[in-house]
Amino acid sequence: MKLNSNFSTALACSLVLGCQSTTASQELATPQDHGVAPHVASTSIHARAATQEVEAWTPEDGVDILLSRAIVHSPKVRQAYQAWQVALERVPQVTALPDPWLSLTGYVQSVETRTGPMDARIGFTQKLPWPGKLDAAGDYASAQAEVARNQVEVARLGIRRMFLRNWAERIYLRKAEEITAAQVALLEHIEEVSLRLYESSRVPQADVLRTQVERLEMVDRLDTLIQREAPLISIMESALGAPIDAASSWDTLEFYPSSILAEESILKQRLMAESPVMQQQQARLLVSQQAQEVAELSGRPDLSIGADWTWIGNGNPVQPGAGDDAFAMTLAVELPLGKGRIDGARRQALANRRLVVAQIEARQWELLAELQQALSSYEDALRRIHLFEQRMLPLSEQTYETTLAAYQSGQAGFQDMLDAARVMLDFRLSSARASADAALAIADLHGLLTEELLLAENLER
Fold first, then answer.
1. Exposure on the CB side of residue 119, measured as CA atoms within 13 A
2. Do residues 420 and 396 make contact, with C-beta atoms less than 8 angstroms apart?
3. Which residues face 157 on adjacent strands?
4. Fewer CB within a 10 Å sphere, N or C end of the chain?
5. What pLDDT is stored for residue 312 in this prediction?
6. Can you state the percent helix, strand and coil of the chain, rounding each to 5?
7. Is residue 86 within 8 Å of residue 144, measured between CB atoms?
8. Residue 126, SS3?
9. Which helix (H) or strand (E) segment is 105 a member of?
10. Phi and psi (nearest 5°) for 406?
């Protein structure tokens, strides 16, 4: 059984689907080396869509629809979205003035004054933070909200990568099942040939028995491949947040001419400057800077203003102002005497900023390494695809056909024919594995950059 070259080529690009950007989604394709890729309908995605309920899934939905829904409705994405909303609601809280105090005082025993007894008092007090403190607190909370917003995009990339990797593995399993089932049929044919030769006393019974053992081993491998599908489906369902109908045609591929990935140097520049992961890291740096500003202002004293109204009872009528109520105003200043505490908070904020800078540098090197690994894996997979499909597979199939004919004529041994069949199986599976590895590498790239950052046609960026 010869592999269909177009199918293997398509599987190499099978994970190049329409990516979602932070504002809108477009279609993504892979290098022209293998001119086809699965089509994915473009879907506009807004962050608030994460709060909507998951629409009813139907068996007619293709993988593009499932992927778009996973990016929007995944529980992890919705969790990140709600965390962002929590952070946003923190901003108006920290920028508002503290609530004022209203006090009412009654005297168990009246206090006599020159103008009469003090019957009761009502007071009002308002705390006023030092100028700039509320603004600094608001900037700090806004920076934290920006980190949470970027986490929504990072979560989408992660869900996309997880979904596509498992989808690619499922496609590989389907292809491996097809190849293994064909190998079982091939061994059944070999068994029939050896049985006829045994009946004519041209080969020993051991050839028949060895063929049966080999066939049973292939049946076992086929059953194992089938059993591996269920966990992959479960992982994809966890990304989607809804069950997937196993009887559907959701994994049907549609193909269209592909575009070209940007060069490695350009991808590195975009990864450092525009990827959601690095944008989140830059937002974390802004948080540390705002935390420094808050710490610097922590040593400034807060103010407090107040007013009191005191009711005065009837007093000596001969006294000037007898019985007149009293009004007073208060101005208080906080005394920041905890110098050790204040200096400690400032040193902590500075150390935290240096920590974030070091973490960003480490993350940059990690992302560059992940990008290099994905690109290298992709190039190596394309090399193996070409090697197996153009050279090794045709040779192995020719070798098997020649050996089978020689075995039937008594010019080759049974072991030679069996070895030729095994080599042909291994090459077919290796070719399918190379196609899946190429798809996995593309999925890893989708976990680093959004679609418009991957394509070479967007050089104007």
1. 10
2. yes
3. none
4. C
5. 85
6. 65, 10, 25
7. no
8. strand
9. strand 101-113
10. -70, -35
For residue 5, count CB atoms less than 10 angstroms from its CB and return exposed for 0-12, middle for 13-18, buried for 19 or more. Answer: middle
Instruction: Print the domain residue range for 203.
Output: 5-458
Please name which of 35, 70, 4 lies closest in space to residue 259, comparing C-alpha atoms: 35
Domain count, the chain: 1
Interatomic CA distance for residues 185 and 172, integer angstroms = 20
Q: Which of 159, 34, 79 is nearest to 435 (CA)?
A: 34
Shortest CA distance to 147 belongs to which of 284, 21, 291? 284
What lies within 8 Å, CB to CB, of 173 at 6+ separation is: 225, 228, 229, 232
DSSP 3-state of 11: helix
Q: Which two tokens stand for residue 77?
A: 């994405």
The residue with tokens 């590195």 is 268
Cα–Cα distance, 458 to 461 (Å, whole number): 6
Reported as a single tens digit per residue, the pLDDT across 384-438 is 999 998 999 999 999 989 998 998 888 888 888 888 988 999 999 999 999 889 8
Contacts of 438 (CB under 8 A, 6+ apart): 11, 12, 13, 377, 378, 381, 382, 385
Cα gap 236→242, rounded to integer Å: 9
pTM of the model: 0.72
Q: Which two tokens stand for residue 352?
A: 């935290």
Enumerate residues 6+ apart whose C-beta is below 8 A from 299.
336, 339, 342, 346
Q: Are 301 and 338 in contact (CB under 8 A)?
A: no
Question: Does an H or E element contain 361, and which?
Answer: helix 339-387
The single-letter DSSP state of residue 202 is: S
CATH number at residue 158: 1.20.1600.10
